Protein backbone atom coordinates (compact mmCIF):
# COMPACT_ATOMS: atom_id res chain seq x y z
CA UNK A 1 0.00 0.00 0.00
CA UNK A 2 2.83 2.42 0.84
CA UNK A 3 4.39 1.87 -2.59
CA UNK A 4 1.05 2.51 -4.28
CA UNK A 5 0.50 5.74 -2.32
CA UNK A 6 4.04 6.83 -3.18
CA UNK A 7 3.38 6.42 -6.91
CA UNK A 8 0.28 8.62 -6.46
CA UNK A 9 2.34 11.20 -4.55
CA UNK A 10 0.09 10.74 -1.51
CA UNK A 11 2.44 8.99 0.96
CA UNK A 12 3.46 12.31 2.57
CA UNK A 13 -0.07 12.70 3.96
CA UNK A 14 0.61 9.74 6.26
CA UNK A 15 3.12 11.83 8.21
CA UNK A 16 2.00 15.47 8.16
CA UNK A 17 -0.90 17.23 9.82
CA UNK A 18 -3.37 19.52 8.12
CA UNK A 19 -2.08 23.08 7.61
CA UNK A 20 -3.50 25.78 9.87
CA UNK A 21 -5.64 28.47 8.25
CA UNK A 22 -4.81 31.06 10.89
CA UNK A 23 -7.03 33.93 11.97
CA UNK A 24 -7.26 35.86 8.70
CA UNK A 25 -6.38 33.45 5.90
CA UNK A 26 -6.00 34.81 2.41
CA UNK A 27 -7.42 33.22 -0.68
CA UNK A 28 -4.18 31.43 -1.49
CA UNK A 29 -3.98 29.83 1.98
CA UNK A 30 -7.58 28.68 1.78
CA UNK A 31 -6.93 27.13 -1.62
CA UNK A 32 -3.84 25.33 -0.29
CA UNK A 33 -5.77 23.94 2.67
CA UNK A 34 -8.60 22.78 0.40
CA UNK A 35 -6.09 21.06 -1.89
CA UNK A 36 -4.48 19.38 1.12
CA UNK A 37 -7.86 18.15 2.40
CA UNK A 38 -8.71 16.73 -1.02
CA UNK A 39 -5.42 14.83 -1.27
CA UNK A 40 -5.72 13.66 2.33
CA UNK A 41 -9.24 12.43 1.59
CA UNK A 42 -7.91 10.41 -1.36
CA UNK A 43 -5.04 8.98 0.68
CA UNK A 44 -7.32 8.00 3.57
CA UNK A 45 -9.87 6.31 1.34
CA UNK A 46 -7.25 4.42 -0.65
CA UNK A 47 -6.18 2.88 2.65
CA UNK A 48 -9.77 2.20 3.74
CA UNK A 49 -10.50 0.59 0.39
CA UNK A 50 -7.79 -1.99 1.08
CA UNK A 51 -9.33 -3.03 4.41
CA UNK A 52 -11.90 -5.71 5.10
CA UNK A 53 -15.51 -4.50 5.26
CA UNK A 54 -15.68 -5.01 9.03
CA UNK A 55 -12.47 -3.02 9.53
CA UNK A 56 -13.70 -0.30 7.17
CA UNK A 57 -16.57 0.48 9.55
CA UNK A 58 -14.14 0.64 12.46
CA UNK A 59 -11.54 2.95 10.89
CA UNK A 60 -13.64 5.15 8.57
CA UNK A 61 -14.36 7.74 11.33
CA UNK A 62 -10.65 8.67 11.51
CA UNK A 63 -10.23 12.40 10.82
CA UNK A 64 -7.35 12.11 8.35
CA UNK A 65 -4.90 9.71 6.71
CA UNK A 66 -2.20 10.24 9.35
CA UNK A 67 -4.54 9.34 12.22
CA UNK A 68 -5.72 6.28 10.30
CA UNK A 69 -2.16 5.12 9.62
CA UNK A 70 -1.09 5.58 13.25
CA UNK A 71 -4.10 3.66 14.52
CA UNK A 72 -3.43 0.74 12.18
CA UNK A 73 0.25 0.67 13.13
CA UNK A 74 -0.51 0.62 16.85
CA UNK A 75 -2.81 -2.36 16.42
CA UNK A 76 -0.90 -4.50 13.97
CA UNK A 77 2.64 -3.73 15.09
CA UNK A 78 1.61 -4.82 18.59
CA UNK A 79 0.15 -8.02 17.16
CA UNK A 80 3.32 -8.51 15.11
CA UNK A 81 5.45 -8.21 18.24
CA UNK A 82 3.20 -10.74 19.98
CA UNK A 83 3.56 -13.11 17.04
CA UNK A 84 7.35 -12.84 17.23
CA UNK A 85 7.32 -13.64 20.95
CA UNK A 86 5.09 -16.67 20.30
CA UNK A 87 7.44 -18.04 17.63
CA UNK A 88 10.52 -17.47 19.82
CA UNK A 89 8.78 -19.20 22.74
CA UNK A 90 7.92 -22.13 20.49
CA UNK A 91 11.58 -22.41 19.48
CA UNK A 92 12.84 -22.28 23.08
CA UNK A 93 10.32 -24.89 24.28
CA UNK A 94 11.02 -27.32 21.44
CA UNK A 95 12.68 -30.52 22.66
CA UNK A 96 13.10 -33.84 20.86
CA UNK A 97 11.54 -36.97 22.38
CA UNK A 98 12.60 -40.61 22.23
CA UNK A 99 9.03 -41.63 21.37
CA UNK A 100 9.26 -40.02 17.90
CA UNK A 101 11.72 -40.47 15.06
CA UNK A 102 14.52 -37.94 14.95
CA UNK A 103 13.90 -37.02 11.31
CA UNK A 104 10.21 -36.24 11.89
CA UNK A 105 11.23 -33.93 14.74
CA UNK A 106 13.92 -32.33 12.58
CA UNK A 107 11.14 -31.41 10.15
CA UNK A 108 9.23 -29.76 13.02
CA UNK A 109 12.39 -27.83 13.89
CA UNK A 110 12.74 -26.63 10.29
CA UNK A 111 9.13 -25.40 10.28
CA UNK A 112 9.81 -23.35 13.42
CA UNK A 113 12.92 -21.90 11.78
CA UNK A 114 10.82 -20.97 8.75
CA UNK A 115 8.29 -19.17 10.97
CA UNK A 116 11.12 -17.25 12.64
CA UNK A 117 12.45 -16.11 9.25
CA UNK A 118 8.95 -15.09 8.15
CA UNK A 119 8.75 -12.85 11.22
CA UNK A 120 11.90 -11.06 10.03
CA UNK A 121 14.28 -12.60 12.56
CA UNK A 122 17.40 -14.01 10.93
CA UNK A 123 19.33 -16.84 12.62
CA UNK A 124 22.66 -17.87 11.17
CA UNK A 125 23.33 -21.39 9.91
CA UNK A 126 25.88 -22.05 12.66
CA UNK A 127 23.33 -21.11 15.33
CA UNK A 128 20.71 -23.42 13.80
CA UNK A 129 23.18 -26.32 13.70
CA UNK A 130 24.22 -25.81 17.34
CA UNK A 131 20.58 -25.47 18.45
CA UNK A 132 19.51 -28.64 16.64
CA UNK A 133 22.39 -30.63 18.17
CA UNK A 134 21.49 -29.35 21.64
CA UNK A 135 17.86 -30.44 21.22
CA UNK A 136 18.62 -34.09 20.31
CA UNK A 137 16.78 -36.70 22.46
CA UNK A 138 18.40 -38.36 25.53
CA UNK A 139 19.09 -41.65 23.69
CA UNK A 140 21.34 -39.73 21.29
CA UNK A 141 23.57 -38.46 24.12
CA UNK A 142 26.80 -40.08 22.85
CA UNK A 143 26.20 -38.98 19.26
CA UNK A 144 25.28 -35.52 20.54
CA UNK A 145 28.59 -35.21 22.41
CA UNK A 146 30.43 -36.42 19.31
CA UNK A 147 28.81 -33.71 17.18
CA UNK A 148 29.43 -30.99 19.78
CA UNK A 149 33.15 -31.73 19.88
CA UNK A 150 33.65 -31.68 16.11
CA UNK A 151 35.90 -28.79 15.16
CA UNK A 152 34.87 -28.59 11.52
CA UNK A 153 31.87 -26.38 10.81
CA UNK A 154 28.78 -28.13 9.47
CA UNK A 155 25.91 -26.83 7.42
CA UNK A 156 22.37 -27.60 8.53
CA UNK A 157 21.82 -29.84 5.49
CA UNK A 158 24.96 -31.86 6.34
CA UNK A 159 23.81 -32.30 9.94
CA UNK A 160 20.40 -33.56 8.81
CA UNK A 161 22.10 -36.13 6.55
CA UNK A 162 24.24 -37.33 9.49
CA UNK A 163 21.17 -37.59 11.73
CA UNK A 164 19.32 -39.60 9.09
CA UNK A 165 22.26 -42.04 8.73
CA UNK A 166 22.56 -42.40 12.51
CA UNK A 167 18.85 -43.13 12.87
CA UNK A 168 18.94 -45.71 10.05
CA UNK A 169 21.89 -47.45 11.75
CA UNK A 170 20.08 -47.53 15.09
CA UNK A 171 16.97 -49.01 13.50
CA UNK A 172 19.07 -51.67 11.73
CA UNK A 173 20.80 -52.62 15.00
CA UNK A 174 17.45 -52.81 16.74
CA UNK A 175 16.07 -55.16 14.08
CA UNK A 176 19.14 -57.43 14.36
CA UNK A 177 18.81 -57.51 18.16
CA UNK A 178 15.14 -58.42 17.94
CA UNK A 179 15.95 -61.21 15.46
CA UNK A 180 18.53 -62.77 17.82
CA UNK A 181 16.11 -62.61 20.74
CA UNK A 182 13.38 -64.29 18.71
CA UNK A 183 15.78 -66.99 17.50
CA UNK A 184 16.93 -67.69 21.07
CA UNK A 185 13.34 -67.87 22.27
CA UNK A 186 12.52 -70.35 19.50
CA UNK A 187 15.44 -72.59 20.47
CA UNK A 188 14.37 -72.63 24.11
CA UNK A 189 10.77 -73.23 23.15
CA UNK A 190 11.70 -76.12 20.84
CA UNK A 191 13.93 -77.71 23.50
CA UNK A 192 11.34 -77.57 26.24
CA UNK A 193 9.14 -80.52 25.06
CA UNK A 194 12.16 -82.86 24.91
CA UNK A 195 13.20 -81.88 28.40
CA UNK A 196 9.69 -82.40 29.71
CA UNK A 197 9.51 -85.81 28.00
CA UNK A 198 12.78 -86.88 29.63
CA UNK A 199 11.55 -85.91 33.08
CA UNK A 200 8.29 -87.76 32.49
CA UNK A 201 10.14 -90.89 31.31
CA UNK A 202 12.38 -90.85 34.38
CA UNK A 203 9.39 -90.57 36.71
CA UNK A 204 7.62 -93.44 34.95
CA UNK A 205 10.73 -95.62 35.28
CA UNK A 206 11.00 -94.90 38.99
CA UNK A 207 7.29 -95.66 39.49
CA UNK A 208 7.60 -99.02 37.75
CA UNK A 209 10.54 -100.07 39.93
CA UNK A 210 8.59 -99.22 43.08
CA UNK A 211 5.57 -101.21 41.94
CA UNK A 212 7.74 -104.24 41.12
CA UNK A 213 9.24 -104.08 44.58
CA UNK A 214 5.79 -104.13 46.17
CA UNK A 215 4.59 -107.09 44.11
CA UNK A 216 7.69 -109.28 44.77
CA UNK A 217 6.93 -111.82 47.67
CA UNK A 218 9.08 -111.53 50.71
CA UNK A 219 11.38 -114.54 51.54
CA UNK A 220 10.08 -116.90 54.34
CA UNK A 221 11.80 -116.73 57.66
CA UNK A 222 14.08 -119.67 58.42
CA UNK A 223 13.36 -121.49 61.63
CA UNK A 224 16.30 -122.29 63.80
TrEMBL record:
Keywords: Signal. This is Uncharacterized protein. Residues 1-18 form the signal peptide. It comes from the Eukaryota. Pfam families: Retrotran_gag_2.
Amino acid sequence: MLFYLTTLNLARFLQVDAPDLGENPDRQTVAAVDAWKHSDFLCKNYILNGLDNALYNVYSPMVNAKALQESLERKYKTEDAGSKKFVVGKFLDFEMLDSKTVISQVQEFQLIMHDIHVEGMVLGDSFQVAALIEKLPPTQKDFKNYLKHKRKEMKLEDLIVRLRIEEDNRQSEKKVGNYHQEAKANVVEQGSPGLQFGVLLFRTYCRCILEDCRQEPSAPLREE
